[in-house]
Design brief:
DNA-binding; mainly alpha; 3-stranded antiparallel beta sheet; 3 strands; about 65% helix; 2 domains; homodimer
DNA sequence: TTTTTAGTTCATAAAATTATGAACTTAGTG
DNA sequence: CACTAAGTTCATAATTTTATGAACTAAAAA
């Protein structure tokens, strides 16, 4: 008798529930369902590294859904993978260390909006000074925040170093 | 001869282009097309306050699209309106002053994710201490940020007061 | 060389989102 | 009261997004 020895990913109810919650949370931030759940799975899975098949099976989705989801997440730099010699499979894991870059990216996105607001100020009629001033105030505030957030990162690093 | 004296909203090419850009920017942040463009219109319009019909006409959309868009934006607190006695129409305008609240809301959203990450830490197997530690670090950093952002708001208010 | 494994691609199906127009409501106006 | 203007609702249409399964590819194993 031959055993099919693919060790299946077994998820507790708690884990499944949390995957859904995390999935919904990422969906709310604009992610699509499958990638969102893949991230959730990688967060709660006992094994931090999962193969293509394990993901497909654990989430009960099609191979193509897994393929698309994984490639999207790789491209977004939310996950990465390793391989082991003598094993053609890729082992996917969260790029947790990447939150620092994500944080910067988010700031950049907001900064991009600020650029648009500056354009608004240029295009706006001068007949509405009070209104224009209120937009200017927003622009200034966002500038202030974008200047200071990197400092916050630095300070965090410093405090980490002081007591690790 | 009778003139139809509804003063139409005339948009320059520059304004139209900017409305599109702002629209796309909001869409990228998850807004739907019509509300995104209504916001864009209110940003660039020479009149900071526009009626239902003016919005409908300026954006060339259906009344229902305007209705839905406006109600969504009202609910999201992105716009508000005034009325004038003897005029049943509502005059919609951006709630620019509201960016402060929006900022807080965004922080709260991120904080919500942090709550989920704490749940992850509870559910995770103890067999992967290094991985768990890396998630813990993320949780701690986010906590740090959420503690410090309100301070940033305060400091900005202070500096404003010092030299207005 | 044939087979298996790991994964991609593509046409299509299913589902969800958005927008529309017509009918309807509601409150003032003449 | 009849009329109009302001806006909503609803069924439907159009579009977009998301997921699927089957066919395909490429590399390694047998």
């Amino acid at each position: 008798m031959i055993f099919n020895c693919k060790p299946k990913i077994v998820l507790t109810e708690k884990q499944k529930a949390l995957i859904e919650k995390i999935g919904i949370s990422f969906e709310n931030e604009g992610s699509q369902p499958v990638p969102a759940r893949i991230l959730g799975l990688l967060y709660v899975s006992d094994k931090p590294e999962l193969t293509f098949d394990e993901i497909t099976e654990a989430l009960q989705i099609s191979k193509s859904a897994t393929s698309n989801g994984i490639n999207l997440l790789l491209q977004m730099q939310r996950i990465e993978y390793t391989t082991f010699s003598g094993d053609r499979r890729r082992y996917f894991r969260l790029k947790v260390s990447n939150w620092r870059d994500e944080f910067r990216t988010k700031i950049d996105t907001m900064a991009g909006f600020n650029v648009l607001l500056r354009e608004v100020l240029e295009v706006r009629t001068k007949e509405t000074p009070a209104y224009n001033a209120s937009i200017k105030e927003l622009v200034d505030f966002l500038d202030y925040v974008f200047q200071n957030l990197p400092l916050l990162l630095q300070k965090w690093d410093q405090e980490k170093k002081d007591r690790p």
